[in-house]
Amino acid sequence: MLKLFIAEDEDTIRNGIISSIDWNMHDITICGEAANGEEALTLLDHVHPDIILTDIQMPKINGLDFIQQAKGRGLSFEAIILTGYEDFQYAKQSIRLNVFDYILKPALPSKILDAVLQAKQRIDQARLMNQQLHLLEEYADKNNYLEKVEKLHYWFHFPDQSKNEEKRISAKQLKMCIHPEDYLHVGIIRFPSKAISYYIDDYELLRFAAMNVTNETLSSFYSGKLEILFDHEFLIWVGNIDSHYDSSHLIPYLQQLKENYMRYLKLPIYIGIGRVKPSIEYVHDSYHEAKKALDEHYYYKEKDAFFYSELESQERKLSSHDKKLSDIENELITYIYQKQYDAALDKLEIWLTYLKENTSYHKDQMNVKAMTLIIEMQKFVQGTTLTKIEWENDFINWLEQMPTMKTFDEMSTILKKIFQNLFEIVTAEKPVHRTVQRAQAIIEGRYTENLTLESVANEVFVSSAYLSTLFKQELGINFLDYLHQYRITQAKILLTQHYKIYEVANKTGYKDERHFSSTFKKWTGMTPSNFQKESKISS
């Protein structure tokens, strides 16, 4: 726990700060309190606080002099000033003393807590950096560390070339921490492709921090018989286990590992675990199984730990020649060429659902299938429109993104975006029947109202059945889907303007937020909240 010291001459305020906040819940303990600067200085030598929260105007020694004298004694801490005086000279002196924060009284407990927690984060960061630098020096001192990493890489990636090597002897010669004759398995950690650590900017230092967190968390489970290394974007561990190993015993440690990565590095992680092998001679098998297990994150993004042993019991169908899937794809392409775009979108949803629930394609195979559909769509559009395709660069970017998709949902989102954009381009190319144009004008002018096929048909003086036929014939989409499409286009604009989701729903003609969210996801491939987050990141 971090130690907080409070120096404040007003008893009511000092006691209020101590009692109104649950400091223990935030891993902070009150190590001392004082009513004046002189008393505070006397106590500091005994309590050694990490954070000092002090008033400025106090008897005997004021808060700023107290901080200056404490630092003069060689004490290291973060200082937070709490004062009722908004004086420029005080602020200037605080800056010179490298005070962390300057809070004006009266201050809510929440504001004081926020300042202390931010100071705590800075201390945690500094300590972590020091730990990693120490670890970096340790690894640099171990002359054979790089040799061990090189050897393990060789065993992982070149099993045929290394099969005649006496791995047990090599492991002993390199003084690996694992016992080569004992049972072992491999675990792999993958970080999100856009992961950012808020604590550590230096990539090499981040790698060592990750290794340190992994070692500290898992070492007790493996009784210290553990080797940890990086292999490109993966962090890998090889650990010895006893013959009575049960994966359920490892799960609490993996949960703790995920929590520690978030706590110390602010990084989410995904984990794959290979099967147990009788000795290091089979380490490459466990490595490849761990990678395959990790690929399951493609289908189940809500999970973050996968055991290869679980894959064997899954009852997914092998689908190298899946006739039903092929039929769905053919129907989808037929709808596209028949310009039945609403039916094509519905069939795309069916195709995606079937792939996720009934097949066992590897993620690379899945992305190839998606790219095949995109290219078919491109051929259709290029044969349909005579004008230059303005989205060519975007299309190339989409294709380049497809192989990098880490989850099925990411692939689905990109695919739906592509279809949606291409359908909009095609429907915008041709001259439209004047009755449909008038109906479109009504939708564009009054999409926030409760429009129906019948009400719009009455306004353009045709029957609802005829207007429905015209929409399908002219735009390849039914009236209701066109209305949704237009509303969702407007909703996307509003979602980038910091409106709440329920406000956007009301402003675009949806009285029910759940209906709005499900419709938005159908047409964009993502929820309104996810769209809002992405737009904030890109802006």
UniProtKB/TrEMBL annotation:
GO terms for molecular function: DNA-binding transcription factor activity; sequence-specific DNA binding. The keyword Transcription regulation applies. One of its GO terms (biological process) is phosphorelay signal transduction system. Its main location: cytoplasm. Residues 437-534 form the HTH araC/xylS-type domain. The modification 4-aspartylphosphate is found at D55. Residues 3-120 form the Response regulatory domain. It is found in: Cytoplasm. Keywords: Cytoplasm, DNA-binding, Phosphoprotein, Transcription, Transcription regulation, Two-component regulatory system. It holds the Pfam family HTH_18. GO terms for cellular component: cytoplasm. This is Response regulator.
